[in-house]
Specification:
Blueprint: E1 2-5, H1 10-23, E2 26-28, H2 50-65, E3 69-78, H3 99-114, E4 123-133, E5 141-151, E6 167-169, H4 181-187, H5 189-203
Parallel strand pairs: 1-2, 1-3
Antiparallel strand pairs: 3-4, 4-5, 5-6
Helix pairs in contact: 1-5, 4-5
Length: 208
């Protein structure tokens, strides 16, 4: 069964190809389905709500391809910052360009805002919300995954992407930047949300 996964993020695509393959499903992405990038996509992640953004992306790409479509929106929520950067995690520092430059700017902004804050006050969580449309006219089914941790005072490890080198996972006892692919997949917010979704497909629970 082919499922369109509505993301152009190379980092997410690497993770999701592994998760889908392990569950026996084939993930295809917008470029695989012949959907060229459009400026309209810039308006699909303008909400402060993970769920709203996920639904907008799922609906947009389902209309473009007529394939069963799943989309996620995910990000980092830091307690001391009132839940920021949240749904604006990718765009927090206001920098555009190659992913490595955007990640570096966002990480620098996070460290700047938390400068001098004690270890016990740097609690955070990654959260992922996804929306699945088995067909264009269907109401979306919503799934969520969360992983808890804290923010380090400096990046550790070169793995992952986004804020991973700064996120100290409670489950792993090390940063996502230090974790190997299997370790991260097992406990990450995205891994948990997508495993819940794929589990419903295997059980025939998801609407068709």
């Amino acid at each position: 069964m082919k499922i369109l996964v509505a993301t152009r993020s190379e980092g997410k695509q690497r993770e999701l190809r592994r998760l889908f393959a392990a569950a026996g499903y084939e993930a295809v992405f917008p470029s695989d389905a012949g959907v060229a990038w459009s400026g309209d996509e810039e308006q699909l992640e303008v909400s402060d709500s993970f769920e709203t953004n996920a639904r907008m992306k799922a609906e947009y790409f389902a209309q473009k391809t007529s394939l069963p479509t799943v989309a996620d929106d995910s990000g980092l929520e830091v307690i001391a910052l009132g839940g920021q950067p949240g749904a604006r995690s990718k765009r927090w520092a206001g920098v555009t360009g190659p992913p490595t430059e955007v990640d570096a700017a966002n990480n620098a902004e996070l460290l700047r805002r938390l400068a001098g804050l004690a270890e016990g006050k740097r609690r955070a969580r990654y959260r992922c919300v996804l929306a699945y449309l088995p067909r264009r006219s269907a109401p979306p089914q919503i799934f969520q995954g969360i992983c808890n941790g804290s923010i380090l005072v400096q990046p550790t490890g070169n793995g992952g992407f986004g804020y991973d080198p700064l996120f100290l996972s409670d489950d792993l006892g090390k940063s996502f930047g230090e974790a190997d692919q299997n370790e991260k997949d097992a406990v990450s917010h995205r891994g948990r949300a997508f495993r819940a979704f794929l589990g419903t497909l295997r059980q025939g629970v998801a609407p068709r």
